[in-house]
């Protein structure tokens, strides 16, 4: 145990005990296996092996526990979730448990037949990632030749099966100038929604900062573009946008607040407050193989570590914005300040803000070096 | 593929929930929620009633007529409210519309 984390119970907010709300969403990383090798993959640097993965029956039990404790949305993710042979069975069990099922996929491993089976199993929604608006760039970023063409086919099969589609466009220095084309592609593919999300610089992305960090000009141009496109395409496509937080003034409300809305399960059953939480060495992660999910959520050390405001430094505890951003991102604080309870370095009030900006500026100006691909 | 044109909402509009959008009784929190991709909206009783009335068969005018009779309230005002509700949810791509 590291010295700067103690469990404080009951959790307090402005000196008063708070009732911890039930989680709304669960991200189930069914596997870390993936045919793609995106250089900003959100999986940890230490990928979990296929042998360690939860069985079909174990996942189904987790879904049933999640639904009973108030989870509404289930995100079936990975790695590439289609790498699990039991994906259709898992989807059917999750739907039967009453969960809203969302498949987050690269598309690789899905066939027309499998998409029809997922539709029959009750899949509510599918999110398909695209890495660029041209095959050359998209396949370079994903590290998978032929990926772009396959994704277009998957989008068409999804549309034909009647499953609503969101296109996920992760953006960064090398594809940000294609955002307009990526949005047009999403509309052409019949997507009702697009998520334009700037790379978050943890894990693999942190190894690729000089290849991925957008410039301030790109950030401002994308902000303006999104604002204009939202008006132009109202009623046609919904645009959800996450800007580059290194260029923002205040931190993001990471995970909607630590241990407030979301719960993340790794392929081997570890339960995390966010997908990058394992970068914080002081946290202890429970496993669904050892404890009930509700007990982990309400009583687990990792979930209680940054709930409420008693863990916050004075700068944050006395700040009006703590109701908006809940103190920002703990993993970013860990990475830059060496202390997960420090003020998020993105915040304009953080003493590390200048350093963060200088590093972002230098990385954004750098001639992009070759990618360090995930897991290769 | 899809028709990339936003449809205006009028009294003649016929609407139903789009696939991937559905009502769920949230027993843990004691409320009714409308679930959509990355969205969970807690609805009040009136909103639930409107959503349930969007059956893909009756026009908004017919629905307003029914509500007016049921609640003994002026139909014109109800119709304005129903159109505004449907317009809002349609912009969020939660409905399928026919005019």
Automatic annotation (TrEMBL), chain A:
Cofactor(s), by name: [4Fe-4S] cluster
Cofactor binding mode and count: Binds 1 [4Fe-4S] cluster. The cluster is coordinated with 3 cysteines and an exchangeable S-adenosyl-L-methionine.
Pathway(s) served: Cofactor biosynthesis; pyrroloquinoline quinone biosynthesis
Keyword Iron set for record: yes
GO annotation, biological process: pyrroloquinoline quinone biosynthetic process
A UniProt-annotated Pfam family: Radical_SAM
InterPro entries: 4Fe4S-binding_SPASM_dom, Aldolase_TIM, Elp3/MiaA/NifB-like_rSAM, PQQ_synth_PqqE_bac, PqqE-like, Radical_SAM_PqqE_MftC-like, rSAM, rSAM_sf
Reactions catalysed, as given in the entry: [PQQ precursor protein] + S-adenosyl-L-methionine = E-Y cross-linked-[PQQ precursor protein] + 5'-deoxyadenosine + L-methionine + H(+)
EC primary class: oxidoreductase
PROSITE patterns (UniProt xref): RADICAL_SAM
Matching CDD domains: Radical_SAM (cd01335), SPASM_PqqE (cd21119)
Keywords of this entry: 4Fe-4S, Iron, Iron-sulfur, Metal-binding, Oxidoreductase, PQQ biosynthesis, S-adenosyl-L-methionine
EC number in record: 1.21.98.4
GO molecular function, one term: 4 iron, 4 sulfur cluster binding
Domain Radical SAM core as annotated: residue spans: 20-240
Binding site for [4Fe-4S] cluster: 34, 38, 41
Complex formation: Interacts with PqqD. The interaction is necessary for activity of PqqE.
PANTHER family linked: PQQA PEPTIDE CYCLASE (PTHR11228:SF7), RADICAL SAM DOMAIN PROTEIN (PTHR11228)
Family, as annotated: Belongs to the radical SAM superfamily. PqqE family.
Function statement: Catalyzes the cross-linking of a glutamate residue and a tyrosine residue in the PqqA protein as part of the biosynthesis of pyrroloquinoline quinone (PQQ).
Protein name according to UniProt: PqqA peptide cyclase
From TrEMBL, chain B:
Pathway it works in: Cofactor biosynthesis; pyrroloquinoline quinone biosynthesis
InterPro entries the record matches: PQQD, PqqD_bac, PqqD_sf
Leader sequence residues: none
Gene Ontology molecular function: any one: quinone binding
Keyword Ribonucleoprotein: no
Protein's GO biological process: pyrroloquinoline quinone biosynthetic process
Superkingdom in the source lineage: Bacteria
Pfam families: PqqD (PF05402)
UniProt keywords, alphabetically: PQQ biosynthesis
Assembly description: Monomer. Interacts with PqqE.
Protein name: Pyrroloquinoline quinone biosynthesis protein D
């Amino acid at each position: 145990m590291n010295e700067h984390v103690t469990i404080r119970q009951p959790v307090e907010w402005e000196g008063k005990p708070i009732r911890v709300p039930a989680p709304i969403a669960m991200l189930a990383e069914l596997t870390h296996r993936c045919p793609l090798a995106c250089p900003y993959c959100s999986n940890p640097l230490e990928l979990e092996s296929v042998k360690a993965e939860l069985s079909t029956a174990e996942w189904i039990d987790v879904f049933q526990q999640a639904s009973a404790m108030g989870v509404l949305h289930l995100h079936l993710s990975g790695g590439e979730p289609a790498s699990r042979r039991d994906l259709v069975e898992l989807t059917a069990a999750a739907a039967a448990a009453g969960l809203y099922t969302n498949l987050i996929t690269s598309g690789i491993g899905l066939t027309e037949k499998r998409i029809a089976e997922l539709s029959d199993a009750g899949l509510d929604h599918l999110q398909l990632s695209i890495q660029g608006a041209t095959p050359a760039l998209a396949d370079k970023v994903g590290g998978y030749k032929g990926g772009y063409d396959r994704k277009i086919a998957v989008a068409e099969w999804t549309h034909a099966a009647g499953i609503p589609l969101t296109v996920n466009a992760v953006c960064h220095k090398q594809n940000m100038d294609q955002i307009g084309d990526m949005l047009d592609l999403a509309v052409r593919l019949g997507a009702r929604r697009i998520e334009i999300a700037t790379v978050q610089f943890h894990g693999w992305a942190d190894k690729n900062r000089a290849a991925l960090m957008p410039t301030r000009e790109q950030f401002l141009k994308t902000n303006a573009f999104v604002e204009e496109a939202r008006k132009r395409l109202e009623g046609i496509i919904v645009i959800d946008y996450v800007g580059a937080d290194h260029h923002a003034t205040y931190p993001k409300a990471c995970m909607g607040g630590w241990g407030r809305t979301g719960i993340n399960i790794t392929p081997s059953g570890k339960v995390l407050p966010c997908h990058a939480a394992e970068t914080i060495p002081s946290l202890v992660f429970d496993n669904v193989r050892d404890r009930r999910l509700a007990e982990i959520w309400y009583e687990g050390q990792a979930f209680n570590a940054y709930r409420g405001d008693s863990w916050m430094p004075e700068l944050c505890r006395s700040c009006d914005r703590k109701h908006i951003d809940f103190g920002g991102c703990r993993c970013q604080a860990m990475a830059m300040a060496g202390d997960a309870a420090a003020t998020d370095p993105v915040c304009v009030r953080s003493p590390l803000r200048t350093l963060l900006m200088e590093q972002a500026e230098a990385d954004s100006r750098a001639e992009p070096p070759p990618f360090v691909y995930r897991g290769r | 593929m899809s028709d990339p044109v936003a449809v205006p909402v009028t009294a003649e509009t016929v609407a139903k929930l789009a696939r991937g959008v559905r009502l769920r009784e949230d027993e843990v929190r004691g409320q009714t929620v409308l679930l959509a991709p990355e969205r969970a909206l807690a609805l009040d009783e009136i909103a639930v009633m409107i959503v349930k009335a969007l059956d893909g068969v009756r026009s908004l005018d017919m629905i307003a007529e029914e509500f007016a009779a049921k609640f003994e309230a002026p139909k014109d005002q109800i119709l304005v409210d129903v159109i505004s509700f449907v317009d809002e949810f349609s912009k969020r791509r939660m409905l399928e519309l026919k005019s």
